């Protein structure tokens, strides 16, 4: 029986997975057939290796594909050029053998000559690679996965320089038909790590690479096709389209996150309280529960995210400003923090602005930042002390949450100036709320509506959703417009009641909580 896979390569005969045929056809037509040298650099667990494995099989009728993994070449093999040449030639020989090409002397003999010699240079390696490509019955495609493994080695940069030199003269000196490198770091950033001095940072030997713009995220349709295959096997009775849309809403198609949600529903959620049958689990509520459980577990992807934030303080600051303040950052692919965040898969571009790549990343980052701050936050401690009184018959009393927050905020922050409150007010509410829902519930910031003036928080507690708009006061007319926007937003969530928290700097403001009717909706409005 097939299963959802989150570890290593996905295979269509073993795993439920998104079909890659259309993507492979694009890569072949736009890059391989056109003799392009290019890099597939995407974030961790983005399906790079799965794509390369599928592409190797897809190309084998027309090309000889030499698929290498630089994780098989140890650090010691990069100590100097002769050592690297022997390791590279040995790996190529092994690849030919595994691919059933070990008897093809025109391919094997040039490499065997290198293995028999000591002290071979990169120049000698490429003379033999050129001969191998010249004599091959089919065009030769070189694929190298995990090029990050070579990230701090000058020998690898020299290897790229040789590839570039042969690429530029390949009409006279035969060489690989196409070259595909895959990893997280772009080649430009590999060079940056080797030579941090400003005058060398961007002098990459890989400026011949074609721009790889194929979208590797999964669309809603692709997710629906994958879980549709699961449904055909298991007959759960799920609404395939609704579940696919909900998974996409949380993941924006980030491959490992899609598979992780499906795996959690299939293997962990079904049979638990509230999800007794597969149909109960394969529903929007099941997706929400699976995401909540995922955020409680440390995974390689999340660990990598924390590591990069520790290394790149400017990137961390940008993420905090986007999450807490709704800061609008113009998207520029060459700005260092944006470039790094995009390379790691944390950031994307949306309508010309920098955006966090998906809702799960945003929820994880929000939890991370809040947990780090909780120990020194007075408002968090106040929410923790007040927490037990807000849950009544397993329901969250959001009216009381707002009432108590207004009192606590006035008590703790009444002497703070306007700029401080405008910058940190929304963070304070989220800190106050966190210990109240205490792992039983979860919340996320709705990216579609967030800006410097407004943030919508969606709170989910035991399957019930609460819509809370956090708004910086900008006059009564703006406030009335905000009330109308919230009323319309409640329609989207099929809710009759919503909550509005205004951080008001009007000297004549009336602090407190009141209930109003707007557009047939009940809005509980709190002013601090």
Task: Itemize the secondary structure elements and their pairings.
Elements: E1 3-4, E2 15-16, H1 21-32, E3 37-41, H2 48-59, E4 64-69, H3 81-98, H4 105-115, H5 122-135, E5 140-145, H6 154-168, E6 178-183, H7 187-194, H8 220-234, H9 240-251, H10 255-269, H11 278-281, H12 284-294, H13 300-311, H14 313-325, H15 336-343, E7 347-350, E8 353-356, H16 359-374, H17 378-386, E9 391-392, E10 395-396, H18 398-413, H19 418-437, E11 441-445, E12 454-461, E13 464-472, H20 476-492, E14 497-503, E15 512-518, E16 521-527
Parallel strand pairs: 1-2, 3-6, 4-5, 5-6, 13-14, 14-16
Antiparallel strand pairs: 7-8, 9-10, 11-12, 12-13, 15-16
Helix pairs in contact: 1-2, 3-4, 4-5, 8-9, 9-12, 10-12, 17-18, 17-19, 18-19
């Amino acid at each position: 029986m097939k299963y959802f896979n989150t570890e290593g390569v996905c295979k269509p005969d073993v795993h439920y997975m998104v079909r890659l045929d259309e993507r492979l056809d694009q890569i072949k037509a736009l890059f391989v057939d056109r003799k392009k040298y290019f890099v597939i650099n995407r974030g961790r667990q983005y399906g790079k290796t799965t794509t390369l494995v599928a592409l190797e099989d897809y190309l084998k009728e027309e090309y000889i594909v030499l698929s290498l993994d630089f994780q098989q070449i140890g650090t010691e093999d990069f100590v100097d050029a002769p050592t690297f040449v022997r390791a590279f030639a040995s790996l190529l020989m092994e690849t030919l053998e595994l691919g059933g090409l070990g008897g093809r002397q025109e391919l094997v003999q040039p490499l065997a000559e290198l293995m028999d010699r000591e002290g071979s240079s990169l120049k000698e390696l490429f003379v033999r690679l050129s001969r191998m490509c010249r004599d091959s019955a089919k065009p030769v495609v070189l694929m190298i996965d995990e090029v990050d493994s070579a990230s701090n080695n000058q020998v690898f940069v020299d290897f790229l320089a040789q590839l570039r030199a042969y690429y530029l003269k390949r009409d006279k000196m035969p060489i690989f038909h196409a070259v595909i490198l895959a990893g997280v770091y772009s080649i430009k950033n590999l060079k940056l790590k080797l030579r941090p001095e400003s005058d060398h940072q961007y002098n990459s030997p890989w400026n011949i690479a074609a721009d790889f713009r194929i979208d590797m995220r999964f669309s809603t349709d692709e997710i629906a096709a994958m879980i549709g295959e699961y449904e055909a096997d298991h007959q759960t009775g799920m609404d395939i389209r609704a579940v696919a849309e909900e998974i996409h809403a949380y993941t924006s198609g980030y491959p490992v996150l899609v598979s992780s949600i499906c795996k959690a529903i299939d293997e962990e959620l079904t049979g638990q309280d509230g999800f007794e049958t597969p149909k109960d689990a394969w529903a929007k509520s099941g997706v929400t529960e699976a995401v909540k459980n995922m955020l409680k577990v440390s995974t390689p992807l999340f660990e990598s995210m924390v590591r990069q934030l520790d290394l790149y303080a400017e990137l961390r600051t940008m993420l905090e400003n986007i999450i807490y303040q709704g800061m609008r950052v113009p998207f520029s692919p060459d700005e260092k923090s944006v470039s790094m965040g995009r390379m790691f898969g944390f950031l994307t571009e949306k309508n010309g602005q920098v955006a966090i790549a998906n809702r799960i990343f945003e929820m994880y980052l929000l939890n991370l930042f809040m947990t780090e701050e909780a120990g020194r936050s007075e408002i968090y401690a106040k929410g923790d002390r007040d927490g037990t009184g807000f849950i009544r018959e397993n329901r969250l009393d959001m009216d009381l949450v707002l009432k108590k927050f207004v009192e606590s905020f006035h008590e703790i922050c009444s002497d703070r100036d306007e700029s401080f409150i405008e910058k940190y007010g929304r963070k304070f509410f989220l800190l106050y709320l966190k210990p109240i829902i205490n792992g039983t519930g979860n919340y996320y910031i709705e990216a579609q509506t967030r800006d410097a003036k407004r943030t919508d928080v969606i709170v989910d507690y035991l399957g019930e959703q609460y819509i809370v708009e956090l708004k910086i006061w900008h006059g009564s007319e703006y406030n009335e417009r905000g009330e109308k926007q919230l009323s319309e937003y409640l329609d989207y969530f099929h809710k009759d009641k919503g909550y509005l928290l205004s951080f008001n700097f009007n000297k004549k403001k009336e602090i407190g909580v009141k209930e109003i009717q707007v557009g047939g909706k009940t809005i509980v409005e709190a002013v601090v």
